[in-house]
Prior knowledge:
Elements: H1 5-29, H2 37-61, H3 73-102, H4 115-118, H5 121-155
Helix pairs in contact: 1-2, 2-3, 3-5
Amino acid sequence: MKYSKAQIIYHWLTVAVLAAMVLSGLAYTYDWIDTGSIRLHQIVGQVFIVILLIRMTARLTHPVKTTATHHTPFEVLMARLVHGGLYLCMIAYVVTGYVAASGLRDPLLIAAVDQGFARSDTGELFLEAHFTLKWVLLALFALHLAAVLKHRFWDKDTTNSNMTLTFRKE
Length: 170
């Protein structure tokens, strides 16, 4: 299977934006930066929403067909579960984060959710879910990275070339 150049770019943009989200979230949580980290987190989060919407639209309108026959049924199943889990987790993560950010005193959001809702008990559940989902997202990312490393160093196959802009024989 080979993704389009646009899908590959969306993939790596997702990685870069998630890294910025993690750093700005940690900076806010642990007070690494006196001010601005939560504002940066909100801005980057909204950029992430746009990238995720574009990425999902591209994925749905241009599905990728599996042509690799050298993967075991277990590998195919795990790939589908991890990729599906990553998409679901990213969607839940932006929804819970958006609601949680709407509860801030001065949210820097394009269209904040009703502040009364965001600060209610239900809104607090969204905040807790956002904090919990980071661990789920991290676990799914770790599984994804482990599979990348397995294909690169154990199997020594060309699976990883699906997400590069140039095909490499390994």
